[in-house]
Q: What sequence folds into this?
């Protein structure tokens, strides 16, 4: 919850006083034609009103009326391992944050580290995504938006996201298995090919392409910066007025 | 994220103008001794400044400086089934909400309904609480406080709460098994005694009393209203200045 500090109210009072007293002096001068008296009246006015303005600010600070929340959204990046989800999502998050939007970044990497017992079977993956969708929904109830990146390879998983979160924006980060394998700096595709990682999406597990994504990013043709801009522009036009 | 509407800025401008112009008229009258001219100057001032004030408000609305967030807390109710956790927690939540605090209510009942596959073994319960603690931690990162009620019968579970959330306030809702059985309107104790519910805390599973709770509520001696007041008072004195 935002609370305005006393210092902010005082600073606003001073900045307002600057404009207001200048205006008063000009008006009084126009009416009475005496500059010295006009300035004296201006000084008397400034001193009395700086206190009055501060009181006025403190009273208004207690009123909630007219303070509006931004409609929270949920940007959900899906795609093969190493398709570029995390990188683009990080960029989008940074940009939105810099715009002063209350937003949380949720990445598969961090969540799985915290809950290592979650496996990669179809059932476990779906349950995992359902939990994340619940987390996002709870954040949104409190006006917090989310930027999520999860392989989320199944239709059902993405259905949970659509059903359990507000204003879902499904972003399909597209890249062929071959391209992702070329980017394999983590060596995960290699391990999956050797059979050292089981249920690896793209190799030993299926990736069901989203049928109705809100945004498609072809990472073989689009740069990271362009992709970030694309998503931020979409959010701006739809949810930030 | 809070955003001030245009209407709020205009209303503030008008309410301010009332006080400010009255002050100006009095000052000009004191300096020049002419009431009619003082009022005319006051009117000219009012008209020009209502617009100036509105512009001033819109500019300040873009500045984040001096807007402070309340330090988020996590009130965690633990105790036997039917000890009174949910009822007291609901009361506390309602009271905090009415004070304008950004707070989320998380109850075992709702979460378990959503994830029915979670069992009641020691391991499953601990994992469940760890997930809730993660949810609360994420909310708190976004300035949202929490009021949670879970049996959370084990020391480890409550340790997760202490470690993974900010400003945890553990509230031990105390009642003997006998008392809880008398309140058994749900018939759950009866079922547990017959062996129809397994791992039922208090009957077929242990409740490890908290060693260092922040608040203890003896529900055999304290009314619901008193209990709610106790917790709210504690929160007020510690986290709301």
A:
């Amino acid at each position: 919850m935002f609370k305005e500090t006393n210092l902010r109210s005082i600073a606003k009072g001073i900045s307002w006083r600057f404009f207001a007293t200048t205006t008063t002096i000009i008006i009084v001068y126009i009416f009475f034609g005496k500059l010295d008296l006009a300035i004296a009246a201006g000084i008397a006015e400034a001193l009395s009103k700086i206190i009055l303005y501060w009181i006025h600010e403190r009273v208004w600070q207690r009123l909630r009326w007219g303070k509006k929340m931004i409609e929270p959204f949920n940007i959900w990046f899906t795609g093969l391992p190493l398709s570029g989800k995390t990188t683009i999502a990080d960029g989008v998050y940074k940009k939105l944050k810099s715009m002063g939007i209350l937003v949380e970044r949720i990445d598969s990497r961090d969540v799985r580290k915290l809950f290592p017992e979650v496996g990669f079977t179809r059932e476990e993956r779906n349950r995992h995504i359902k939990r994340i969708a619940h987390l996002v929904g709870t954040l949104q109830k409190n006006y917090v938006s989310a930027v999520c990146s999860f392989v989320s390879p199944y239709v059902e998983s993405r259905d949970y996201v659509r059903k359990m979160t507000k204003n879902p924006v499904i972003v399909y980060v597209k890249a062929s298995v071959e391209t992702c394998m070329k980017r394999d700096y983590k060596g995960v595709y290699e391990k999956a090919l050797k059979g050292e990682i089981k249920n690896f999406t793209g190799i030993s597990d299926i990736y069901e392409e989203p049928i109705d994504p809100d945004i498609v990013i072809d990472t073989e043709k689009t740069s990271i910066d362009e992709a970030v801009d694309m998503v931020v522009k979409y959010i701006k036009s739809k949810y930030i007025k």
Observations:
- The mean pLDDT of chain A is 89.
- Chain A touches chain B through 58 residues (CB under 8 Å).
- Chain A is about 55% helix and 15% strand.
